[in-house]
Structure formats: C-alpha cells, structure tokens
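Hi L.,

You mentioned the student needs an example of a multi-chain input paired with its predicted structure. This one should do, with 882 residues in total across all chains.
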Amino acid sequence: MIEAPPGAGFFATHTVAGLAADLRTGRRSAADLVEHALAEAARSTLNAFVTVDEPGARAAAHRAADELAAGVDRGPLHGIPVAVKDLVDTAGLRTTMGSRHFADRVPDRDAECVRRLREAGAVVVGKTVTHEFAYGPTGDKSAHGPAHNPYRPDAMSGGSSAGSAVAVAAGIVPLAVGTDTGGSVRIPAAACGVTGLRPTYGAVPVDGVFPLSPTLDSVGPLARTIDDCRLMWRVLAGREAPEASTRPVRIGWVEPEAFHPADEAVTAAARKLVPDAETVEVPDARVLLADYRLIQSAEAYEIHAERVARAPELFGDELVARLRVAEQVRGWEYVRALEHRRRAVATVETLFDGQDVLALPTLPITAPPIGARRTSAGGREVDVRAALLSQTSPWSVLGLPALSVPAGLVDGMPAGLQLVANPGGEELLFVVAERLVQPPR
Amino acid sequence: MIEAPPGAGFFATHTVAGLAADLRTGRRSAADLVEHALAEAARSTLNAFVTVDEPGARAAAHRAADELAAGVDRGPLHGIPVAVKDLVDTAGLRTTMGSRHFADRVPDRDAECVRRLREAGAVVVGKTVTHEFAYGPTGDKSAHGPAHNPYRPDAMSGGSSAGSAVAVAAGIVPLAVGTDTGGSVRIPAAACGVTGLRPTYGAVPVDGVFPLSPTLDSVGPLARTIDDCRLMWRVLAGREAPEASTRPVRIGWVEPEAFHPADEAVTAAARKLVPDAETVEVPDARVLLADYRLIQSAEAYEIHAERVARAPELFGDELVARLRVAEQVRGWEYVRALEHRRRAVATVETLFDGQDVLALPTLPITAPPIGARRTSAGGREVDVRAALLSQTSPWSVLGLPALSVPAGLVDGMPAGLQLVANPGGEELLFVVAERLVQPPR
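Structure written out for the whole complex:
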C-alpha cells in the first residue's frame, strides 16, 4: 500500500478482514461502521458522493447488526459500508448517470451487482460521482461537478468511476462499485492510489447498469487493499475462494510506449514492482487503441442518439461535442474494428503461452489538473483523454481481466501497476499482486 | 414444376435421380452427360457462363465414369454436371467475382462447398455469371454482361446468382451452386422458374467464397426440381437423408404487402399453392428491411474500402455509386440494426410456436426488363432492387432457411413461392414443398 492521502478518514487505516473480525468479536458493530462512513462523507470536501443515503444506510446497518447478533452470517462483507457509482441502479435511491437527463430518476430495482452486495450483507452508503454517462476518463465533468483527487484536490481523480475511487482513497468507505469500459475502474484507481479490478468481459452481470458500450462494459470493485478488492470481486462475481496456488508465475512486461508516450518516473514506479519481468511485445498495439475508439464511439452514440436529437442542451458541452464526433464513425469502420478485435484476441492468446500475467503502468502519467485537456507525457504534448485511456483500453478491447494496484507516489501523486491475465484469471491477478506488493517474508 | 422455357436444353427434361439411375444401369455415362452440358452451354445465348471448362469437365467426367465402372459409387451426384457461381473459388479455374478487379484471378484451392461437390463425384462444368461482387439482386451488371432470363431474354434473370439460375432453368446443367446474402439464390430461382435454397446461416461453410456481408452470407443449391435441390443440399451441408416424416405441417401465410407492394397476380400464384394457410403477422416487418440494408452496406463497404480508394474505375458505375452510399452508414446505425436483429430473432421464434413453416411469394413481381431500376408493383412505382429484395432479405437477417419453388407463370413469366422454417429446418422445407407442388395422389 502507499501512504494515505492527507486527511484520509477512518477506513484508510482499516481492512475489511480486520473490520469483519471486529464485527464478529463485538469490538465494533455495523452501526458503528456506517456512522464512520456517514461522518467521513459529511466531512469530505472532495465531492465523491452525489447522494448519501443516511436513513437507508443506517437501516441496512441495523439489519446487518441484528442478523449477525442472531447468528446469521453473510460472509466477509456483512455489515461493511460500500459506495455505488451513480451509473448503477439502486432501488428507491436516485441514480443520475452524472447527467441532467436523469436528474430525478429513482429506479425501482437494484442492479444485479448491487443485489449481490446486499445479499452479502454489505451496507450501501450512497452514490458516487461518475463522469457524465461514464463517457470520459477524467472524472471532472458531470452534472455534479468534478471529483477531486485526495492527494491534491486540484488534480483530477480520473474516471469515469471518479467518486468511487475518491471515496475509497479518502477512507470514506472501504469498498466501492465502479464500472470499466475502457479503464473507468483502473484509471481512477491508479490516479487515486487504490486497487481496482476490471473483470473478464461478462464475468459480472451488467444488468441495471447504464450502458456506455455494451460489448466493452464491465462492473468491478475498488478497494484500498488487494485483499479487500478480492473479497468484493468474489461477491460481485458470485465466486467462492479457490484453492490457494503456490506455483511460480511468469510475468511479461509491456512497455507503455507501445501504446503512448509515458513519463519515465511513472513507468519506473510500476517497473520497480516487477523487476524481473521479461519484456514482451503486443502485436498491433496501436490498432487496439483505434479499435477501442471506433467500437466505443459507435456503441455509445447508439445509446444516446435520441437524447442528442431531442435534448442536446441537457448534456455537458464537452460530452455533446464528443457525441457528435462519435456519430460520424462509419459502419464499415466499426465492422473492421470488430474484425480486428477477433483476430487480436487470438494473437494475444499466444502471448499468454509464454507468460501468465502481463504487467505495465496503469497510466502513463500521474493525475493532471482538473479541467486539463492537454498535458505532457514522456516529454511530448499529448491529449489527456488519450493518455489516460492508452494503457487500459487495449485490454478492454480484448475482454481480458486487469487489476490496477498502487505503485508508490511520483512527486506526491499515485502511480499504478496494471496486471493483465487470460480470461477467467482474476484470482491469479490477486495472487500475483500480493506477491509483488507485499512480498512474502 | 412449371413449363420449361423456350429452347430449354437436355437437363430440362431429366432429373438427377433419373440420370443417376441411368448412370448405374449403363444407359448413359458421365461422359455423355458432360457432353450434353458442354453442348448446351455452347448453344445457349443467355450468357449464363463466364467460363466453361471443357477439358476440366471432360477429365472429371471420365474419372467419375471410371470410378463408377470400377464399383466406386460416390452417391447421387456422382457423374452429374454442376455449375458454380463465379464468386466461389475453383482450384485452377478462373474466378472473377464478376469484377474487373479479379479479371484474371485463378485460385489455388477449391472453396469448401466445391470440394464437397467434387468429393461427391459431381462434375464442375464451369463458372456462372454473378452480379458484380454479388452486390445486386438484378443479375444484369457484371464485368461479363447481364444474364438473360430464359423465359424472355430481354428480362433480367434476378441475382446475384444469375448465371446459376439461368443455367439450370435453360437445361444446361441440372444443378448449380449459388450464394445468398439477401436473396441471391432465391431471387434468380424465382425469376427463372427453378428451385433454390438459402440454408440456415452457417449450415454450409463459406470458406473460399468471396464475402459480401459476412454475417449474412450463405451458400445454397439451385436445381430444377425440389428433389434435385434436396440432393445437392445434403452434399453441400454434409448431411445424411433423415427419416421420412409424415406428420401434418402447419403453414402460416405472410402477406407480401407487409414488406413491400406486390402484384396481385404474382401473390395469387404463390397463394394458390398454400390455399389453407392461416395468415400470420411478422412483427416489425419493415424494420427488418432497414436492418438488412444497414448490415449489408456496412459489412460490404468494409470488404471493398481499399478497392474503392485505390481503383474505383475498375468497378461498374452503378456499383461504385452504391458503395459510396454504403460508406455513409454510421457505426451506431449498424449497432442498432444488429441489436434489433437480436430482438427480432427472439420475436420471430414465437411465430414458429404456432406454425411449422411460413409461406409468401419469393418476389412481389415477375422479372423486370434488363437494366430497369424503376418498375411497378401492386400499382405503385417502386425501386427494382428494393422490390426484388423485399420478400427474401428479412429471412436473411433472421438467419432462417428459406426455399423458393416455382409457382407457375404469370403472363408467361415465372412466379415463386417461398417457404421459411426455423433454423435447421431445411429438410422440412423440402417435404412441405413436395406436398404442395406435387400433392400425393
């Protein structure tokens, strides 16, 4: 783990496993935990939350406490506060997509991922700021204003699961739900110094999650520690803990420059965690970036076409302008991108014949200032969005699971290491990450 | 069957089963049959063939005859002449796609469907005219000129498997390979008064077939009789004859006007074969037509993008103009069409809860004059291409098998009845067609 950000709250110094033990010894109660979360949320000035559901959270915490007292134990998340990205439906609790189009929308039903969390006893504290419609990796444009980076509040949090990363990094909650299309869990996780998983495409149901690009969308956990993230992943995916594996793991290093110019210090921070990894090459690396743009643009515009036609003024200026560009993507370009994706999936599979896990920086830079759209990376002036998405979106295109873990601070700002596995390799990612970040003594 | 066209050749009066029997009694030899085919091809002025492979055909016929004489029997197609659409690779034999882009192309390998035919002992006589790149239902634009309708040579044959339908209708060969994306087997089959099957999507491999729109493309047989068509289907699909079924079949009638204005006399000719069918409605019928246009356009442009950029002059004027329109289809429109297709497949499945087979005219009109692009249908002025595709392309979008059988003559020109089944229902289609066209006495 890295040094907590200035002023971080209660959950910055407590793990889920530790709290779960406390709940069972009676040292703490679920009601205590929810009060910590509500107090931290109220105290925070980082704009992590769109909605804090005090009565709902307290009621859920009391139910959780009563159940535990009555001997009903729902597992490690029982009584643990969680935050949910405001792109994910919560029954009876306003869900806005970060957009004025849905300013007052209250869904009837929980998204399947939320239902699973509640079933596991987790206590939903509130809804976190999402980049408007999850359509942006900066986390600084939404109907509810920008989320602020806990390490430097004038820096962006990254996005689109901006508030979820901020809420975890700032110790407001130990766990939060994010969604990841091109990097929307991993990017803010890395920018804010927490752990975030994009699961294998399809591993966690997206029912009740507002779509951005259906062939790329995923739901994933954000947590401070690797172990906490894994506990939440298992609940989201409905998986049991597998048997522990101790076999050696081969790690391949992917140079970030294959995708985009990168700051040397940021690359070095990530590389330091995998000093022995052999460098491997991803074929057609830059084509994967183009595939991402084409697929995401066409699918996202399809989702928003009627809103753009009928009420463009309800979008933020930046988003409506981006949608108008997305509208221009041609059908044949989309077809070709899908075709290249099919071929690339097969090609990249062969990379995993020689390696179990690929490693690379999650971001080529640390978090730029809120509102910045140009910045420098590796000494080159670059587009901020392109830079933020450059290391994460290729794995989205390929449908692979990818975990971002903190890789120290660079000039006081977090850097991230991203680990990528074959489909279904989430547990392997957690094992490898623990070995790298908390090497066995 | 309908009255053969004027001047029809040898194979207009012989069935495959009859010829197969003759080959085995020694009444005829495979060499005799190939000479009939070569003579008819030489005599015909309908422009059915791009290439007639006299030496290759004769050599294959002699091999077939030698095998039969030696007791090697490859089944009902052994020694039977077949023609192959010039969009389908034939090893060592020029394959042009009806295009100047491939004027001199000689493939190394047979397409899988051709390999299966040769394996079954069929004798490939030559390559038939295809509408340029199979991109057109009229059959009158190709680098090799229009195919002529045997019933009236100034009328179009329909396309894109134009020459295959003409070669069969004119009695030059008993069997021909076609391909069907939006109706390219069924349309010329109906226009020329023969039988043609579009199989279930994926049932016959398209390896070695030049693509038009890969999520819609199929390979199918054309023959004069239903039984001949079935024999060829089984070889193409690699299927054995199933056990005979005698259970009653429920037939639903689909009004052609659901898709497009239709000539009453043409509709009546088809309806006459299914007098007792109950009328059913296809939900969102016209949306399926739009889906077809969007999917086919985007996928086809993807195939041709580099040719349009580098050598537009090698396309026919009409095709390059159509490609430039296809280029404009937006990615989001394509995505939406695929999405609607997914939903429509589920909806139309429920139609088959009440019906085993759907019946409708294959075409809403009889074959217009060669070169015509506007015509009348049901008293309305309409676009010829849209009219020709209107009754066939919806089933392509849905991936369903569909059989076109002759339904008599209207003012001397053939009309067709189309029968559509659930996926995998090809054998049912043949059974139903036989009962309707040749009712048991």
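You could point out the following to them. Chain B has a mean pLDDT of 97. Chain B touches chain A through 19 residues (CB under 8 Å).

Best wishes,
N.
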